Amino acid sequence: MLRTTLILFIAVWAVFVVVPVALLVLWSFLEMKDYSFSSGLSTAAYAAVFDSGRYEVTLRTLRIAGLVTAIELGLALPFALWLAKGVRSSMLKAMVLALLTVPFFISLASRTIVWRSVLSRSGLVNTALMHFGIVEQPVDWLLFSEFSVHLGLLAPSFPTMVLPIFLSISLIDDELIEAARDLGAPPAKVLGDVILPLALPGIIAGIIFTFVPLLGETVVPQLLGGGRVSMLGASISSLLQVLNYPVAAALSTLVLGILAALFIALRLIGGGSIAAVFEGMKR
Amino acid sequence: MNGHDLTTPQGRPGLSRRAVLKAAAAGAAVLTTPALIRQAHAAASTVRIMGVETAALNDWSSFEKETGLKVEFTGINSDPGIFRQEVVANAAGERIDIFLMDGGIEDELGAKGFFAPIDPAKVKGWSEAPAAVMNSPLAQGPDGKQYGMPVVMNADSFAYYPEVIGEEEPLSYALLFESDKTLGKVALENTWLTSLPMAATYLKVAGKQAIGDPSNMTPEEAKAVVDFLIARKKAGQFRALWSTFEESIDLMARKEVVAINCWEPAVKELRKQGKDVRYAFTKEGYNKWMICAYVPKEAATGGRAEVVAKALSGFLGGAYAAQIAVLRGYATANAKAGLAYAEAQKMSAEDIESIKANIAKIEKKFAAPLFWQNAAPTNLQAIEAEWERFRQA
Amino acid sequence: MSAPGTITRMAADAPPEVRPVHVRAGRLEHRLGLLAALGGFGMIALTYAPMLWLGIMSVSADPLGGLPGPFTLEWYDRLFTDRRWVGPLLASMGCGAVVGLACAASGLLVARALPQLRARGALLIAFLAPLFIPGVLLGAGLFLYLRVFLGLRLGWWSVFLAHFAWAYPFALLALLVTTTRFDTRLNDAAADLGAGPWRRFVDVEFPLIMPGVVSAALFGFLLSFNELARTILLRGTATTLPLFEWAQATSHSSNVPLIFALATLVLLASLLLIGVSFWMLFGRAADR
């Protein structure tokens, strides 16, 4: 019975999710008017992507999302390790996990708009800088700049990185770590040879959970970028507003292509494959 | 969840019933929903409205009392793309009796047969409303048919700090686009819908660029306007682009910018904070907009037609006009009915005063020349692509 | 609450040599641990400082562009006068609960079977696919497919589908992290001792993969609760809390009560709710 349910579920998923996603790629090669697509194939949508500067938006978005993800990983991995293996009090652990979960409930727009009172020309930072005579004129680039967008994205993306890594590290048997140490392995070796390989599935999950949603993020770039730092999400929304589905689809196909290229490059360098991820998970 | 934010509202049975219904529908998700919705719509005298929140009341009870209808309101935002999608592809007409949307859209959706023409004779109060408003191009299709009935309207310009700009009016849009006084201290609304025609109007009146209709530009005209805007962007004219009402208030309140092409109620909020901000009377004219009521073709016949006629009369009635004027500082097509209603209901002197001020303001501004905001220009996609080019520059 | 009970029982009954070993920390690890904690708590501070500010501004007279004070309850008063948000809030909670349960149940089904299947690589990609499509476009894609191609009438079911498609990859990965680590030999051992499939699952497997199941349900609920981009196009006439706020954003009226006061109330309520439930789930269970 389990098997039948499983097959049924996979079939439903294929029909209602995989097919529409696959169709997106097809749409990018069609032209559309009044909700009916042309029959012939065309690359006009891709030409439009390059003409209106949307190609640069794509690159900028990948760059910002990549940098933020890297910072999160650098902070989250040690933190998750500490939380999973260094903290004895289960009360503290539960508290930290709760603190990481609660922000998901709060509308991102509410959390983001208050940054303006910190970063604006008359905000806290500029007031302090001028008070201490560090600058004479308020610093403009604190707000409505790539700086403020990065800053605004940092906090909302942290939990999605920490939680899966924490989960995978806390599943590592303490005995395994102790055994490695009893055999005389120095801390760095324990980390590199025991913990990291075992935590790999969580790390990969964390990177995906963080990086990919950042690609479609619209709230922070608008509220803290002030329309000066345009990212992919807003660009696609704007296209859908005028029902330009083919160009929106082309833009996403382009992103998918770049992600696939990164993935293949990683595979060539690291020799990993999807099956290997499962093997890694099993270890 | 803690108790108090889930309290059942007292004395407002319609709302709590809806709330419970929605929660139940959510819980039962897939299967039971259609049945529940049918049940909710079973009452014959319910009018189902889908529209922008600008034209919505916080409390429909006086509207309901005046019309004898129950209102079921589904809010959308002012994105014309979403609205088109609902009407064209999602067959919203099958489950909605009246749409409230920014005028201009009927040029496209009316002409294609999604809306039914409205018969003015069936709507109470139509003849009392000014003909110039009722016959505006934002309510009539290109074929001259009356697809829309004007509901809420205003004429937009920009807000500014007189302490920086000076006291003298009328002002020029140059303050937004090309002025040393405001260099680096201007915010524009982040949409081609308002910001592009304003820039075009400025260029046209200043004689810098030949433009036919600022709200329905050719791709070449749009390109010329965007080239100008990009040059100004490079010169550092603009500090930010805003998208939500709160952002526009925030930008002005902390003087991050000193001029902004925002909605007029933002000025009301700022003055409430004690800021000396004004909404400009301009030399060049205004971005005149109106939200119109449209009737889907499915609702134009039978019992639904009766409900629709009553609701349309309600939108030209006094209860609605008075509430919109107090709530947002906007006028309805029949604003004077609101004044009469307010006086009859003995509303506060302050409210009556603001209703009077609204009527005077609208008369002055609507007499001014220039464009009607147009959500469906002929070269829509080209104009959007040009705006994107400005954002990317 | 059979799961925590089971763990406690197992720990107490276990012979001394298999009692949990705690990781000993040397001096270096201790210092590095402090540094790591500092980084993490720094981020938590960065998360909560704006929310604290939000709370303070929610009782201030001019939340937009002003400074704290003079203090007033005006925004809360307005929030409870105009209660149109209550229905959407309840709807969002209901929708989130359904999505969360569905994610946990179907995630468990797939995550237990997937590692054993031959086509697991391809299947994993198929299950993760929606993660890689920007939200608005997934919404548009589903809309064109369901409405324009299949001609279906949209409503709560399509909202649920969009939320589920968005949350499922997260839930599945969280579950895979635990199920792939589960040692299937434990099941074999239990079978040798005469336990049937159901007993094996309830007494042996489930307690060990429970953190993954809880994470999956939680991801489902949370991702659904604040979802907007995909919901806009698939709503029919359904209204969730984010949709309500989205529509209000163009109302030309101040939404300060929603942005500041309601957000603060949601923050307090979820702190309480999540705090208590995490303490019950993880805090108490792991005490030994």
From TrEMBL, chain A:
SUPFAM superfamilies: MetI-like. Residues 58-266 form the ABC transmembrane type-1 domain. Gene3D superfamilies: MetI-like (1.10.3720.10). It comes from the Bacteria. Keywords: Cell membrane, Membrane, Transmembrane, Transmembrane helix, Transport. It is found in: Cell membrane. Its main location: membrane. CDD domains: TM_PBP2. Signal peptide: none annotated. This is ABC transporter permease.
UniProtKB/TrEMBL annotation, chain C:
Keywords: Cell membrane, Membrane, Transmembrane, Transmembrane helix, Transport. Residues 89-277 form the ABC transmembrane type-1 domain. Its main location: membrane. It is a multi-pass membrane protein. It is found in: Cell membrane. The chain crosses the membrane at residues 32-56, 85-111, 123-148, 154-177, 206-225, 258-282. Belongs to the binding-protein-dependent transport system permease family. CysTW subfamily. This is ABC transporter permease subunit.
